[in-house]
Amino acid sequence: MGSYVALGDSFTAGHDAVAGERWADRLAASLAARSPGLVYRNLAVDGATSAAVLEQLPGALALQPDLVTVVCGANDVLLTSRPDVAGYEKRFAEILGGLRAGAPEAAILTATAPESWQFLELRPRTEARLIQALGDLNAVTRSVAARHRVPCLNVAGHPGLSRRENFGADGLHPSALGHERAAEEIALSLRAHFGIVGGSPGGGD
Fold it and tell me: In sequence order, what are the residues at sequence separation of 6 or more whose Cβ sits closer than 8 angstroms to the Cβ of residue 121?
């Protein structure tokens, strides 16, 4: 494997995370243990909506990636009181379609968003609105991913979302442990779908 590019929002950018702790950093280190010289770029931006992630696409394609992870959509719901799920569907389809056209041999992996955060203090009506909107968004993510033959890791409903130690102080973004566990889950998905196997940074499995 020659290159890995990570696209997305704060989940991938690593809100408040130390360099090297982010799940994408951990995954890249694992891949580099088996592929010395791996080119890795994390183009994700804290607060990015799907529109902003679409703007990351040209930079990703310029790197001629062999692997791309793209996780987005949560901010399309969290940053507005009127989520535009249809608009998200169009933009997400453009992202995956652009990756398929511009890097036809690349392995591409995406994921759903959590549909609730147990450790955020939300008013009941706000929480109900978010759960509904995120459920709608995840349905679109799965549908668009299936149309573009992109495996979709199902984060929504994962048991790790109920463990406080997986979240940082804000109750929204992953802690260092949460990033470690996310890297493990994503590595398992890459192995299952593409046969991509990493190793430890020290060179073992």
Answer: 171
Q: What is the pLDDT of residues 69-104, one digit of tens each?
A: 999 999 999 998 889 999 999 999 999 999 999 999
* Contact present, 63 and 3 (Cβ < 8 Å): yes
Domain boundaries, the chain: 3-28+40-191
For residues 26 and 90, the answer to whether their CB atoms sit within 8 Å is: no
Which residues are registered as beta bridge partners of 6?
42, 69
* Interval 168-199: pLDDT, tens: 999 999 999 999 999 999 999 999 999 999 87
Confirm if 15 and 168 have CB atoms less than 8 A apart. Answer: yes
Q: In one letter, which amino acid is 55? A: E
Q: What is the CATH number of domain 3-28+40-191?
A: 3.40.50.1110
